[in-house]
Write a structure and sequence with these properties.
The protein has about 350 residues and is α/β, with parallel strands linked by helices. It has ten helices and nine strands.
Length: about 350
């Protein structure tokens, strides 16, 4: 799911609460902002709930602003809880009221995880790892939900429900295993480099010739994009299938290079999407082909959208992914990647 922009959101006309409440667990405070949109009556009652689904918002809009966004109109998406960078929890839907939110409907139950049988938790992140405070709140919120339901829940990702790249920082199986362990109340497994045992003095070892840098070689669409950036532009981009600051920087550099070579824009290829790069962006639409389209496709995968291919062809799948990205980021959903879409996509 994507975050709404932090501005241009008004208080909903439907009744909503913004006062905090203390949950049944003394150490946990849950702020509430309830709305009547984007949720449905849960069939099967509370007994149907078996999954605790973790998402990332794909933006830096606050948890409260997310609640306001979903409370104002039909968005075809929502979640039960949102967690801010500092760990503050906001509740959009009280599961005890008998409703479920719309957070894994894209999977259509193919993998056994549905809106009806799950609780959705969105963590504010634009692709970076969750903060320690957010991870701690996930664990407390999970324990709280288990407590009020009287049973343990399965901890899963949006990815597990639909194969959408969400939460993007935790598509990697090892990172997800560590986050899941923390959510369940344990300590994440960490690799510790043990110091080598001391050895008696010996003859100096012969010089070793330097070897080529080894890359992760992960599978996945983000890794495919990373390998393409490395092969096409000679950037030192690891193919770890994780979207982070380096991948973002190299993607912006690739865009700047293409704008220079194709349109003579004379931009500094520095990886910073500033005013000059914004002004230089061209509009890319359906039936376009080339490296700029590849960059759009790669960044859509990084942001959790599926353009239906990484081939440099702006087809219907790419156009629909652009439309969905625009709609979820406060942009006009016209399926055209223009300056404002590039700024959101590369920002």
């Amino acid at each position: 799911m994507r975050s709404p922009p932090p501005s241009r959101r008004s208080r909903p006309s439907a009744p909503a609460m913004t006062t905090g409440r203390v949950s049944s667990m003394a150490a946990l405070t849950i702020n509430t902002y309830h709305g009547s949109f984007n949720k449905s009556r849960r069939t099967g009652g509370l007994g149907a709930i078996v999954n605790f689904v973790e998402h990332y918002t794909g933006g830096n809009g606050s948890a409260r602003n997310n609640c306001i966004y979903f409370a104002t109109a039909n968005r075809n998406a929502s979640a039960d809880f949102f967690i801010d960078k500092d760990g503050t929890i906001w509740e959009y839907n009280n599961i005890l009221d008998g409703f479920y939110t719309w957070h894994v409907g894209d999977g259509k139950g193919k993998y056994g995880i549905t809106n009806t049988n799950s609780i959705g938790v969105e963590v504010v992140s634009d692709g970076e790892d969750f903060t320690a405070a957010q991870r701690a709140s996930l664990s407390k919120l999970y324990a709280h939900c288990c407590s009020i339901l009287g049973r343990k829940l399965n901890v899963v990702r949006h990815y597990d429900a639909s194969r959408k790249y969400c939460p993007a920082p935790y598509i990697d199986s090892a990172k997800w295993a560590a986050l899941k362990t923390e959510t369940l109340g344990g300590q994440p497994t960490q690799v510790v480099n043990k110091p080598a045992a001391s050895k008696p003095a010996s003859k100096p070892a012969p010089a070793v010739k330097p070897t080529a840098k080894k890359y992760t070689g992960a599978s996945g669409k983000i890794a495919e994009f990373q390998r393409w950036l490395r092969a096409t532009y000679k950037y030192d981009c690891d193919d770890d299938n994780l979207f982070g600051p380096k991948t973002r920087k190299y993607a912006v550099m690739a865009l700047q290079s293409e704008l220079n070579s194709q349109f003579g824009k004379e931009l500094a290829v520095d990886g910073a999407f500033g005013d000059n790069t914004y002004a230089a962006c061209v509009s890319v639409r359906e039936n376009a082909r080339g490296n700029i389209t590849r960059i759009i496709q790669g960044m859509l995968y990084c942001k959790g959208y599926d353009p239906k291919g990484f081939d440099g062809i702006f087809g219907k799948g790419c156009a629909e992914a652009v439309r969905a990205f625009q709609a979820n980021n406060g942009l006009t959903p016209d399926k055209v990647a223009g300056r404002n879409t590039f700024r959101k996509l590369m920002g």
